[in-house]
Amino acid sequence: MGFVIYAFLGTLTLGLPWSQKADAPWLDHVFIATSALSTTGLTTISIADSYTFVGQFVVLVLFQIGGIGYMTLSSIIILARRKSLTSAQTGLLRAGFSLPHYFIPQRFLLHVVVFTILIEFTGSLVLWWRFSCLGVSDPLWSAVFHAVSAFATAGFSLNNNSLEAFADDAIVQLTIGSLSMFGAVGFIVMQDVWYSIRLRERMLTFTSRIILLFSSVILGAFTLFIYFVEPAVRSLPIDERMLASFFQAMTASTTAGFNTVPIAGLGKATLVVMMVVMIIGASPSGTGGGIKTTSVSALLAVMLSGLRGRTAIALLKHEIPMQRVVNAVAAATVYICLLVVGLMLLCLSERQEFLSLVFEAVSAIGTVGLSMGATSDLSITGKCIIVSLMFAGRCGPLTIGLALLQREDALKNLRRDDLAV
Q: Which of the chain's termini has less CB crowding within 10 Å, N or C?
C-alpha cells in the first residue's frame, strides 16, 4: 500500500501543468510513476521532451524512494523524529533487507543513508566534470539525475537513446557501471566491506561472499559471451568492444537498464542469455530486481545436493538452512508464475513479435528497463499489464504472494533471522 500511495501521488504530480511540457495521457503518467518507483526505467514517453525540470525532479524523487525502499524511508523518518522502531517494524526491516541476526537495524539504516549520499555525491561530481567536458546541456542536473538513476538501478535517462551517445566514452560508462554495481550488490555487502576496512580484519559474511562470487561470475561470463559471440560489437576496436560487452552485461546483471548499444540490434542468442541474467537479477538489500543471486544460489545448492544424493543442502562447504531454501523456491516459483501469466496476457493483447514481448515482460518484472522498442507501441491493455508486472517485480513476488494469502504463520516466518533470499 505504501508503494501504491507513492505511485498515486507521483502520478498526480506528474500530471500537473507545471510538470509537463506537453499534455500526455494519464496512463502514461501512471506508467512513468510506477516505472520510477519500481526502479525499472521503461518509458512510454520521453522524460526530457515530456516533462519540465519539476517533472524530471519528481521522477528522480520517485526512483530514489524506490531505490532505498519504502520501509527504509518510513523508518528513517521515524528515527529522525527521535522515536524508536516497534518490534513489528524491526521485523519487517530484517525481512525486507534479509538482515543477519547480529545486524542492528537502526545502525544499518544510518549506514544506508550515509552510503547512498556518499556514493551518489561522488558519482555526480565525476559525471558533472565529464558532461561539462563533453558539452552536455545542463551538465550538473544531467549528472545528478544519471548518478541517482544509476545507483538506484533505475535506468532512467534524459537522453532518448539512453547512453548510446557515450558509447565510446569509458569514463561515463565506468562511472555509471560502478554506481549501478554499488547499488546492485546491496547495503549488507557495503557494510561488511566497511567494517573489514575499518577493523582491518576479514568481516565478510557467508551471504556477502555468495553475493560477490555470483555477481562476479555472472558479470564476467556474460561479458565474455557478448565479446566473442555478439555480432553487433564484433566490428568495434578491441578496447571499445570490451567496454561495450562489459556495459551491456553489467546493465543486465545489475538490472540497471542503461544501454550503449541498441538492444533491438543484438543477436537472438545474446538476448536469450540476457533474459536469463535479468531473471536472476541483483542481490538482496540492494536496489536491483530479479529473483536475487542468493535465491538462485540456494536453488543451485538444492540441485547439486540432489545430484550428489545428499539430504543436507550445502554450498561452498556451508550448510544452507531449510527455511532459506523454502523461501528461495517459493520466491522463484511465484516469480515465474507471474511472468508466465503476464506474458500470456501480453500475447493476447499485443501484435508485436513474440521475442519482443518476452523481453519486455522479463524486463518489467525484473525491474530492469531494457527494451527492444516494444514499450512505446503498447496498447492501453498492454501498458496496464506492464505496470502490474513492474509493481509486482518491485514489491517482490514472494511478498505479494504472502500478502494475498494473509497467512499469519507465513508472516512470522518472514521475521526469522535466516530469511536472506
A: N
